[in-house]
Amino acid sequence: MGHSASAAVRKAVIPAAGLGTRFLPATKATPKEMLPVVDKPAIQYVVEEAVAAGLEDVLMITGRGKRALEDHFDRAWELEEALREKGDEERLAEVQLSSRLADVHYVRQGAPKGLGHAVLCAAPHVGYSPFAVLLGDDLIDERDPLLPAMIDVQREKGGSVVALIEVDPSQAHLYGCAAVEATDREDVVRITDLVEKPDPSEAPSNLAVIGRYVLAPEVFDVLRETEPGRGGEIQLTDALRTLAGRKAEEGGPVHGVLFRGRRYDTGDRADYLRATVRLAAERDDLGPEFLSWLREFVAEKDGQNGRSGRRQGK
């Protein structure tokens, strides 16, 4: 096999240069990655996932207005000292955790040229070894680890690996969808084609790509030659289509790992709210009281809707 099968996966790349326009005005001066999910910024969940998979070298692809990301993963000496003087050891530990999680590096994308371009910005840091890419809009529940399985498949089969979920065919246009062939493992497929946000009638399957990748380093050479696609951006999907047709010694093939665990989509406002509610409800320290209030709130809203319906029916 080629280089992509012989080296271990040790580095994670997290693209974080997006403008977060769907969350304006909250993201006018605050990076969308720093929006809290319960009491932690979304980006911290992603870094914690990478570290749990053994990837403690993390590169964030950032842009203008993202300084808060660097500050969050740095030491906050004044805050730490204030908490220490108060004897608030619990919050002190929480504050220090983010600065001790990983060896975090940063590089600026410079121009909004798409996910493929963001990944290409990681080439000097990654070198010629396979690496993971984690998108911040997808939060994977720590109780359902996904990356370790993907890294295992990459180690076994070489090339690149993407994460797939089954979606309703009517939702295919929201994702990149994969054409696949079965392998000797039930939860692993070989990808023969990828179509970015297809019309539902043209989707090759109901298997959609989500924001976790383990990529062969050959992807950098392909991305350098990839022309801008949808929206004038360099699409990672297009590069993966090229690699899917290659042999192992050329950086191929591409496999998919089917994920059936808990995933929280924070990409739009409604899904972000649902993710926050679900995670808060399952917390030992917040869940019981929050769920009690939530039941009362839902019952009250149902009662109001019922009364409103009866008045309209008169």
Detailed description of the structure:
The structure is a single chain. The chain is of the alpha/beta class and 314 residues long. It has one domain (11-282): Spore Coat Polysaccharide Biosynthesis Protein SpsA, Chain A, CATH 3.90.550. Helix content is 39%, strand content 22%. The chain contains twelve helices and 13 strands. The strands form three sheets. A five-stranded mixed barrel has the order 8-11-9-10-12. A two-stranded antiparallel ribbon has the order 2-3. Helix 4 (77-86) packs antiparallel against helix 5 and helix 9 (218-225) crosses helix 10 (236-244). It is globular.
Determine Rg (CA atoms, Å).
21 Å
**Major sheet size, sense and barrel closure:** 5 strands, mixed, barrel
Count of DSSP E strands? 13
- What name goes with the CATH superfamily? Spore Coat Polysaccharide Biosynthesis Protein SpsA, Chain A
DSSP helix fraction: 25-40%
- Secondary structure class reads alpha/beta
User: How many discrete structural domains?
Assistant: 1
**What is the CATH-assigned architecture?**
Alpha-Beta Complex
Number of helices: 12
CATH fold node name: Spore Coat Polysaccharide Biosynthesis Protein SpsA, Chain A
Q: Which regions have little confidence, pLDDT < 50, spanning 5+ residues? A: none
Assign an overall shape: globular
Mean pLDDT: 90
Give the CA-CA distance, first to last residue.
75 Å
β-strand percent reads 15-25%
Order of helices and strands: HEEEHEHHHEHHEEHEEEEHHEEHH
Give the neighbour order of strands across the main sheet: 8-11-9-10-12
CATH class: Alpha Beta
